[in-house]
Give the backbone structure.
Amino acid sequence: MADAGLDHLPSDPAVLRSEVERLREALRATQLEKDRAVRMLRSTNTELYGRVQGQTQQLASLNHLINTITASLDLRQVANTALSGLRSLLRVETALLALRDDDGDTTLFMANPDNYLAALPQRKLKAGEGPLGQVIKTGQGLVVGGVRDSAGVEGSAGPSILCVPIHSREQTIGAVQLLNKWAGPFTDPDRAFVETVAGSLAVAIENARMYTEVQAQLAALERAHAQLVETQAQLVESAKLASIGQLAAGLAHEINNPIGIILGFAQLIGQRTEDEKLKRYAGTMEREAIRVRGIVSDLLGFARQAAAEPRRMDLREVLEAALRLVEYQLIKENVQVVRAYAAEPGWVMADQDQLLQVLMNLIQNARQAMPQGGTLTLRTWTGGGTAYFAVTDTGTGIPPEDLGHVFDPFFTTKPVGQGTGLGLSVSYGIIKRCGGEIRVRSEPGAGTTFWVGLPLTEPEPQ
Amino acid sequence: MSRVLVVEDEAGFQSLLSEVLGGAGHTVDSAESVAEALKLSQARTYDLLLLDYRLPGDTGLDFLESFRMGGQQTPVIIMTAYADVPVVVDAMRLGAVDFLVKPFSLDALLPLVERCLRNAPAASAE
């Protein structure tokens, strides 16, 4: 056909007609072939465009996923984001993640198929268990090529599995597993995709773990700081109390001397004058001086409380300590001492000096109530969560009308011979501050009993 | 009639105690310091001593120690403006027979003085 030039045109019309027909046929065929080629080109073009679009989209999704994973510092959130993303982007049935902690324990996280935002189901994974266990053990990825048909029914080759290790600082800290791709076997691009995600997971997990560690350290620091602040406040408070205590003690001495002089002379005037007006004036001075004494005594009580050092002690031992100081004098004054101590110890928490002060006061009162001698009985007993002691004398007794006032700091009509000690009101304050109680029972002419109850405390650890 | 030595540096207290004890029929000598008290107590024997805890330079306990080391058996009442247990305890250990906490009432002072004098060995017996 190529060499069919016009110079060689056949002269026979019939031949010519058939030649034209043949040429037309060839032209039509060429046209068809061209059309097919164009169609093919177009289709290839479309397919290529689609593939590029798809890959671009996947890259964008991958980028987004990695950004989301690394944005979180919460381990469970990191796991959830990664698993949910992998499951939807690679269209698989299930995505799993296993992480090994510093103790060597491996925890399995599973994407929740119903709700990606819900808490991840998780459990401990045994060493070497399943594909995840294998991959963590070997540090090598694993692909099992099963194919699923479009109806979602597993093909003859069984399930498809893609499992990729997560490496951090040259150690396998975990693995990601995808199970049953909906369409076709897992491909190399799938594997590359998952490996990229695993890389960013490694970073995110490391960050989350470090964050958790830092958070824990921060919490510990905050606790330590709070404790420090509290201790400091306590120190400041006790320093304040101590300085107030020192001030009070110094002040008490400075005030008690002049008050003692004023009180004494006021009483002297009252005794020696016959002038009724002057007697009244002297009485007022005396009352007011006693009032100041009460205020100073309260101040001293507060100072003593600030300096108090409560410790565990047996009441019987405190009674003995007090007796040792006065027993010689008691014998000389014809006072017989009877010890009626309980067989069991009476453990209390108290400041020994303060308790001794209460006892000395009660014993001195008893002494003064028995100017002709008598019997002083010291008893201890326990009951109802309370440790008791009692000081009983066989002295003059307290008149019933005065009995209700003996602990009153401003009580002035004490019978002669009573109230020289350190003051019953001081004793009352000490016992009250220890959470205890002090009571008195008296029968004029027969004697007086003071009894004190203090909260019973645990026995001394052996 | 008894002879009482009052060791007290506060002039007001000194005159109050002299007045009250003198009024009760006792002879009262006064000392304002530990040194003075030692000098007086060595010169004669007293029936009773009223001793303040806080004295210029020393404490009443310093005096009490020297006094007892000198073999004196005279009863001593310690006076303190501190209601301090350790002071009282130390004083009792050093042989004080009783104590008075300032400010004290005269109702407390005189019976205490009488009782201590009654229980004391007579000064003449020594």
Chain A has three domains: 6-58, 73-219, 310-455. The radius of gyration of chain A is 52 Å. Chain A touches chain B at residues 249, 252-253, 256-265, 267-268, 271, 289-290, 293, 297, 300, 325-326, 329, 332-333, 353-354, 356-357, 360, 364, 368, 371, 414, 416-423, 426 (CB under 8 Å). The first strand of chain A starts at residue 92 and ends at 100.
